[in-house]
Amino acid sequence: MVAFGPLSALLERQAAGAPHYKHESNTANLMAINGTFCGVALVTVVLRMYVRIFMLKSVGTDDYVMVAAMVLSLAVLACFSGEAAAGGLGHHPALVDPADWSLFLHWRYFHSLIIMFGISLVKISVACFLRRLVPNKNYHRFLLGSIVFLIAFTLSCAGTLIFNCGTNVSANWDLELRVNGKAKCFSNTTYTNIGIFNSSIQIATDVLFALLPVPIVWKLQANLRTKITLVGILGLGLFACAASIVKTVLQANALFNADWTFHDSFFMWNNIEFNIGILAASLPSLRPLFVKLLGASQRFTSSNGRNGQSYGKYDADGLAYRKTKSNVRNTGNPGREYYEFGSRQSTELGELRRGASVRAFGEDPSKMAGVTSTVTAGDDDSDKIMLDQDFHAVGIDKDWTKPAGSGITKTTTVQIARY
């Protein structure tokens, strides 16, 4: 949205000079807030790409879209800087020279377009991420339809902004064209109503993409802690929804406030919504990095010489360990094959204890650092070991002969090491 303020009130205040406003400036505060949110979002996206490229070695469409959104966030910060240099941002409009005011509005015109596309790209990135998690075709169709809708809606909003003054686009920042009657633009009331309608649609899509991951993540074959963590992180999108609601409330009066640039509340909340969206959409991808750092920290502070395992063998989502096999582990049994089980192939540690022998998992604390137990499993693939993040498991598949009749069909030795 490009907010001009009531033209007559602005001109009257410029003529009066408003001397008591002369030394007031809020520019530094506004730039500090915008710079902080943009900086946090940038760090998050950089770490996300590090995890994808160097740890998971798998970069998806959602990552490319998020990088594009981050570039637009940096462009928005550049627009804020240009607006500050023009003398409009954080100052009272009555004290801004008309030529500087026109330059300020020119920056704000492109600012409005850029942030509009950026917010839509964040939602498209979330939709692409969710499409990789769900096998259900109906979910895929719904998410694809959401992406198509977002693209069409964003283009329609951009058209409203670009052609606000018909084909005379420069009238968006050159107020002389309006005063001289060379351009006819939407009235403040019409423009405000259009903006509120568009913002209402944005709020609905914000809520949709904040809540949609919850049922999808909850159906993943992951432990309860992982599910709660992911839902909580993705739930940060609700803060973006709150920012969008606040922005819409402010939007109702933005065009009728002759002093709107001093606090610039509407665009501030618009930028907060944008960067929190980037943060919420990128944090789930950092889980492998957090787990790796946690494991390194625990091994460094351990005084028991505990055995270090790989914390980086995640699947392409970055949400669970891959099941891998190794014959080179230094265990004294080079002929055996060792499998590392992860969050998609396990049960909680409490479930593991209930399926193990009492002697192995007794109350003796000396036996918790490293124990060996047998877990029986049938043909329903129920030998999936779910470990809490403080534990790691290595299963040893031994050669065996199927006993006659019913009974145990498979024996797995599980070694548990606490980190």
TrEMBL record:
InterPro entries the record matches: Rhodopsin_dom_fungi, SAT4-like
Q: Which UniProt keywords apply?
A: Membrane, Transmembrane, Transmembrane helix
Its chief place of residence is membrane
Q: Does the keyword Plastid apply?
A: no
Q: Which Pfam families match?
A: Fung_rhodopsin
Chain ranges passing through the membrane: 31-51, 63-89, 109-130, 142-163, 196-218, 230-252, 272-290
The record describes its membrane topology as:
Multi-pass membrane protein
Domain of life from the UniProt record: Eukaryota
Query: Which residue numbers delimit the Rhodopsin domain?
Result: 47-291
Q: Name one GO cellular component term.
A: membrane
| Subcellular locations according to the entry | Membrane
Give the protein family: Belongs to the SAT4 family.
> What name goes with this protein?
Rhodopsin domain-containing protein
Taxonomic source organism: Capronia coronata CBS 617.96
